[in-house]
Request: fold
Amino acid sequence: MKKDITDRNDLELIIKEFYMKVRTDKIIGHFFTDVMHVNWETHLPAMIDFWENLLFFNNDYEGNPMSIHKTIDKKHPMKKKDFNRWLKLFNTTIDYHFEGVNAENIKMKANRIAKVMQISLDKKIKKA
Ligand code: HEM
Reply:
C-alpha cells in the first residue's frame, strides 16, 4: 500500500520528478525550454507553493497562472493534446508514489484547472 500525500516534502518530490519528465518531453518540453526559457530555480518552488495552497490551504501563493498561460499561448498556441500530455505526466507521477484522498484530490484539481485554462484560452481566440 502506498502512502498518501501529507505535506510539502511530498509535493516537492512530485514537482521535481514531474518537471524532470516535462522538460525533456517530446510533446510539451519546448514550452518550458524554448517558448518560455523557464528559470527552474524559481519555477519549482512557485509550483510547490501553488499546490500547497490548493491542497493544504497553508501557503499564500499569490501568482496569476491564468495570465501566465495566456502569455505562453500567445507565443505558441497551447493545444488540447498539450494539456492531455501535461495531465498524463502529472497523474502518472502521482500514481507512481502515492494513493489516498489527497492523491485523488490533487489529480482532480489539476484536471479541473486544465479544463478551465483551455476554456479560457479558447474564448480569447474566439474574441480576437
Ligand atoms: C499544456 C499544458 C501546460 C503548459 C505547456 C504549461 C507551461 C507553463 C510554463 C512554461 C510556465 C512557466 C512560465 C514562466 O515562468 O515563465 C508555467 C507556469 C505555471 N503553470 Fe503551467 N503549463 C501547462 C498547464 C498547467 C496546468 C494544468 C496547471 C495547473 C493545474 C499549471 C500551473 C502553472 C502555474 C501555477 C504556473 C505559474 C507559477 C508561478 O507563479 O510562477 N500549468 N506553465
